[in-house]
Design a protein that fits this description.
There is one protein chain. The protein has helices at about 20-30, 65-70, 90-95, 115-125, 130-145, 160-170, 190-205, 215-225, 240-250, 265-270, 295-305, 320-330; strands spanning about 1-15, 35-50, 50-55, 80-85, 100-105, 175-180, 210-215, 225-230, 235-240, 250-260, 275-280, 285-290, 310-315, 350-355. By secondary structure, the chain is an alpha/beta fold. It has two domains: about 1-15 and about 35-245, Rossmann fold; about 250-355, Alpha-Beta Plaits (2-Layer Sandwich). It is globular, with a radius of gyration of 26 Å.
């Protein structure tokens, strides 16, 4: 069964046109002019139950507008929209019983009362029985380590503490679908890691469907096998993250640290006949660029068999770089032939991966 079914979804807004000058301002007081702006432009996608899907795009691409339509906050201009078997904006009261929502920059907790009081109010809003509420609360509080925070006013919580409490608030009624809009914004790496691990466990153990929008692509890499990429209100990519990396990755660089001094001619001779490119870092360290269609093992076997090596590191093209290039090109279609890069400098913004490690 599908958790989310979207077909030709469109959302347009009327935006006021402000005329210039004092005369224009006076005219606007009596007769305003408007223009139609499409924030989401006839998008279609389906998300099966139990999937964690990343929904990404630049500012203004239409991510938050889509989430607001999926959660029933906004009414679509046109198109078909079914979430959890309901049309969100038509069957609001029944629909919200099966979804949880966390907006990173908005709170569903009451600012001046204790966290536990907010949870009790939400229990009544969602009509959760006392026994189910107590069982669910105890489980979530223990998992997210909130025991010491329950009696504090929300205004006295740090951002990381508040976001953990927001997750509990969104999950008290045990929803089957969780919408997360920038859930880790502004958080430090420790709290981000804790929240990611919690979400993976929630999906694995309870089969919760998660739709995640974020600008932090490490969230996507840690959680999502599938990514939907939005640009100017349109979907430009919908597929696996590994496929995206394979299609757009520029290849890899391997850094060798040799036991004895080495020359550029010597390392180049070891890989003669292969479409790779070497450069020296210093007298004992060299990097080799390897195109994405070539196995790293081909280069490793040649070099390790001929020289004494003290250390090896592999550098992968990171997801941030790939996504940035896709937006610059305006399309997620396969990029130009990267074999021409053999005459260019290798890309330096990489994330190191230890030798022998697989792709993330």
């Amino acid at each position: 069964m599908l958790a989310i079914d979207v077909h030709q979804l469109r959302k347009e807004f009327k935006v006021q046109k402000n005329r210039e000058g004092l005369k224009g301002a006076l005219q606007d007081l009596f007769k305003r002019e408007h223009t139609e702006v499409a924030a989401v432009k006839d998008i279609s996608f389906q998300i099966p139950q139990g999937e964690i899907c990343g929904y990404i795009g630049e500012n203004g691409a239409g991510k938050s507008t889509t989430i607001k339509m999926l959660t029933g906050i906004l009414v679509p201009t046109s198109g078909k929209l079914v979430v959890n078997g309901f049309i969100p904006y038509k069957e609001r009261e029944k629909f919200v019983q099966g979804i949880g929502v966390v907006f990173g920059q908005r709170s569903q907790l009451w600012w001046d009362i204790g966290v536990i009081e907010s949870f009790r109010l939400l229990r009544k809003v969602y009509r959760v029985s006392e026994s189910d509420y107590r069982r669910r609360l105890d489980e979530l509080v223990e998992t997210l380590q909130l025991q010491d925070l329950l009696n504090r006013p929300v205004r006295k919580l740090s951002l990381g503490q508040r976001m953990r409490c927001e997750l509990v608030a969104a999950l008290l009624h045990n929803p089957s679908i969780l919408f997360l809009d920038e859930p880790t914004i502004g958080l430090d790496i420790v709290v981000k890691t804790e929240i990611r691990e919690f979400l993976k466990r929630l999906n694995r153990e309870q089969g919760t469907t998660i739709l995640l929008t974020t600008h932090d692509l490490q969230d996507i890499e840690a959680l999502c096998s599938r990514v939907i990429m939005l640009d100017d209100g349109r979907i430009i990519y919908d597929g696996g993250l590994d496929e995206l990396k394979s299609r757009w990755g520029k290849g890899r660089e391997v850094q060798f640290q040799f036991t004895d001094p080495i020359s550029l001619d010597a390392v180049s001779a070891m890989t003669s006949g292969l479409n790779v490119r070497w450069k020296l870092e210093n007298d004992v360290t060299a990097k080799v660029w390897i195109p994405r269609e070539m196995n790293v093992s081909e280069v490793l076997s040649r070099v390790v068999g001929l020289q004494d090596i003290s250390d090896i590191k592999i550098f992968e093209t990171n997801t941030d770089e790939i996504v940035r290039e896709i937006y610059q090109s305006g399309s997620a279609e396969a990029p130009r032939d990267l074999s021409a890069l053999s005459d260019e400098e290798p890309v330096e913004q990489k994330e190191p991966v230890k030798a022998g490690a697989g792709e993330s």
